[in-house]
TrEMBL record:
Signal peptide coordinates: none
MF-aspect GO terms: FAD binding; oxidoreductase activity
Cofactor names: FAD
Originating species: Asparagus officinalis
Family: Belongs to the oxygen-dependent FAD-linked oxidoreductase family.
Spans traversing the lipid bilayer: 12-31
Entry-linked Pfam families: BBE, FAD_binding_4
Keywords, ordered alphabetically: FAD, Flavoprotein, Glycoprotein, Membrane, Signal, Transmembrane, Transmembrane helix
Residue ranges of every copy of the FAD-binding PCMH-type domain listed in the record: 81-257
Keyword Ion transport: no
UniProt entry tagged with the keyword Glycoprotein: yes
Protein name per Swiss-Prot or TrEMBL: FAD-binding PCMH-type domain-containing protein
InterPro entries hit by this protein: BBE, FAD-bd_PCMH, FAD-bd_PCMH-like_sf, FAD-bd_PCMH_sub1, FAD-bd_PCMH_sub2, Oxid_FAD_bind_N
Length: 546
């Protein structure tokens, strides 16, 4: 008995030793891996400060008091809070600072994210699941210079759409505009490199379609313009998204608009015939005079009796007067019953305030230069997108409406019509392929109350996925296309290694169709080591093997 006990004691002791050894090994492993990344991040810091003389004020480390407000400053989706954070933030004030940051990051093998306006739907500009990283925040690189004689502008990446719109209105007057997104706080860097669509899309195409030159820092830390980067890379950065280099600025062509445009918003609930109107809209919106843009915004609502319904708002910009618009509507879309009193004439810049909700929020043009989080509907969200090639039937819409009345889910669906200029540009002219034959873009956005806390986030994400699956029969197929600027990580993520192109092809074809392969070819040429990367960046077609 005693012997047995001793034996088992000894056995117990041995296992205690083994457990201890195991714990020590883990501790050493953890310590060394964390200190590895800490030392390389420290070497990176010394490289910037000592070797390249970057002013210390441009670097914000995690222990600084201003770290969290600087990081939060342009986070537009509070769902992303609490994901991994950068070890430090570099805020360059000149082009050469960007070069130095890349040179040092490459030398010390530091992963880097770049942020312009911070509107990435999945937060890829300031969070990473690919290990420790630093954030290069371009918000100080936001100068805008407008040349009224050539009707062009050089805009730095860190400027916002609102700053550009404001500068155009101040310097070029009421006849000049720029076709891009409706939300003024969106950054130029992410928006133009991913496409960019708004109320002028039918008249002039995407924001990326207006780009005539650009300056970027490539993976070797060199500054290039259109001429020195070559047409392949210049093609890729006009819609091909992240990670071909860090774009410093774009040169864009501005467009001509009349001194007054006309806007209207006409809302109809299901009882007021919304189903028939939306069904009809699909057949006319893409074929209208290209000066006329009518989008539809669908939200859940309650009618007078307090029962659930859907509200469809026909939200329009017309590049002309009321007097021209009314007969056009009378011929093409009389069912809407648009009246003169529904329409308002205003300058184009006012229409920017109108579409962004700034006008109804009592804001004037000076608000366009406000940065950071100014969205009155700021709340956690998940979004997805589709393109529609065949009109959905009335029966189809009736089925879709059921999703709008689900408890605790706030769904916004936006239908942006194409046609016009979009039909004239071939699928391969830029990386954005959803042109000819797409009637409209569909965006689904599910929002919830920030006060719910993060526990319920999974429930909303699941609901959004189910709704998206339900929509499959109504939208484009093979591939089921999506808009890159409405980034959706459910479509797929990159994997490291030799098969990364094939893995990426799954999500890549959905954003870029056949252009995806050409994007990967360009990437092989300009960044074969995949230095610039994220969870959904175009990988090199031929992996360098590093
Ligand atoms: C409230 C809201 C409204 C929106 N409205 C519209 C709309 O009307 N129309 C539309 O088309 N889209 C719209 N979007 C989507 C928007 O176009 C994209 O999210 C766009 O990528 C945002 O650009 P950013 O610079 O603000 O984002 P960021 O989050 O800073 O960047 C987005 C991506 O681009 C990369 N990137 C940023 N800057 C650079 C650079 N200088 N060089 C290289 N890569 C860079 C980032 O690393 C990241 O991968 C909206 C988004 C939000 C949140
Ligand atoms: C930044 O956002 C996080 C997450 O909501 C919050 O905990 C933190 O207090 C914010 N920091 C500042 C300075 O606003
Ligand atoms: C533009 O519309 C406003 C408001 O209706 C009007 O006062 C102004 O005269 C119009 N300007 C032009 C050039 O038509
Ligand atoms: C615009 O709004 C700001 C802030 O609300 C105000 O200070 C300014 O005077 C306004 N400008 C004009 C031209 O109305
Ligand atoms: C658009 O599609 C039509 C019909 O398929 C075709 O005739 C036309 O050439 C296409 N235009 C472009 C620019 O691809
Ligand atoms: C979401 O769906 C997944 C897979 O169907 C399931 O495992 C998970 O529990 C769901 N999460 C929530 C919060 O409902």
């Amino acid at each position: 008995m005693k012997k047995k006990n001793e034996e088992s004691d000894q056995f117990g002791l041995v296992s205690v030793y083994l457990v201890l050894l195991f714990l020590i090994a883990i501790a050493i492993f953890l310590f060394s891996s964390s200190s590895n990344s800490t030392t390389s991040h420290q070497s990176f810091l010394r490289c910037l400060l000592d070797d390249h003389h970057i002013p210390p004020s441009m670097i914000t480390t995690r222990d600084s008091n201003s770290f969290s407000s600087l990081l939060n400053f342009s986070i537009q989706n509070p769902r992303i809070y609490g994901n991994t954070y950068p070890t430090l933030i570099v805020s360059p004030t000149s082009e050469s600072h960007v070069q130095h940051a890349i040179t040092c990051a490459k030398k010390h093998r530091i992963h880097m994210r770049v942020r312009s306006g911070g509107h990435d739907y999945e937060g890829l500009s300031y969070t990473s699941t690919l290990g420790p990283f630093i954030l290069l925040d371009l918000f100080n690189l936001r100068s805008i210079s407008i040349d009224v004689t050539s009707n062009t502008a050089w805009v730095q990446s860190g400027a916002t759409l609102g700053e550009l719109y404001h500068a155009i209105s101040e310097k070029a007057g009421p006849n000049v505009a720029f076709p891009a997104g409706v939300c003024p706080t969106v950054g130029i860097g992410g928006h133009l490199s991913g496409g960019g669509l708004g109320t002028l899309v039918r008249a002039f195409g995407l924001a990326a379609d207006q780009v005539v030159d650009a300056r970027l820092v490539n993976a070797n830390g060199e500054i290039q313009n259109r001429k020195s980067m070559g047409e392949g890379l210049f093609w890729a950065i006009r819609g091909g998204g992240c990670c071909f280099g860090i774009i410093l600025s774009f040169k864009v062509t501005l467009v001509q608009v009349p001194p007054n445009v006309t806007v209207f918003s006409a809302s109809r609930t299901l009882n007021q015939g919304a189903t028939k109107l939306v069904t009809k809209w699909q057949n006319v919106a893409h074929e209208l005079d290209r000066r006329l843009f009518i989008r539809v915004v669908l939200v859940p609502d309650e009618d007078e009796e307090g029962s659930k319904t859907v509200k469809a708002t026909f939200n329009s910009l017309f590049l002309g007067s009321k007097a021209e618009l009314l007969p056009l509507m009378g011929v093409s879309f009389p069912e809407l019953g648009l009246r003169e009193e529904d329409c308002t004439e205003m300058s184009w810049i006012k229409s920017v305030l109108y579409f962004s909700g700034y006008l109804s929020g009592g804001k004037n043009e000076s608000a366009l230069t406000e940065r950071g989080v100014v969205d009155p509907f700021f709340a956690p969200f998940k979004a997805k997108s589709d393109f529609v090639k065949e009109p959905v039937s009335e029966q189809g819409w009736d089925n879709i409406w059921k999703w709008f009345s689900e408890e605790n889910e706030f769904l916004i669906v936006i239908l942006d019509p194409f046609g016009g200029r979009m039909d004239e540009i071939s699928e391969s002219e830029t990386p954005f392929p959803h042109r000819n034959g797409s009637l409209y873009n569909l965006q689904y956005m599910v929002k919830w109350d920030v006060a719910e806390g993060s526990e319920l986030t999974g429930k909303h994400l699941n609901w959004t996925k189910r709704f998206y699956e339900f929509m499959a029969p109504y939208v484009s197929k093979n591939p089921r296309a999506a808009y890159y600027n409405y980034r959706d990580l459910d479509l797929g993520r990159n994997e490291e290694g030799a098969n990364s192109y094939l893995t990426a092809n799954v999500w890549g074809r959905r954003y870029f169709k056949d252009n995806f392969r050409r994007l990967a070819e360009v990437k092989s040429e300009v960044d074969p080591d995949n230095f610039f990367r994220n969870e959904q960046s175009v990988p090199p077609l031929f992996h360098s093997g590093k």
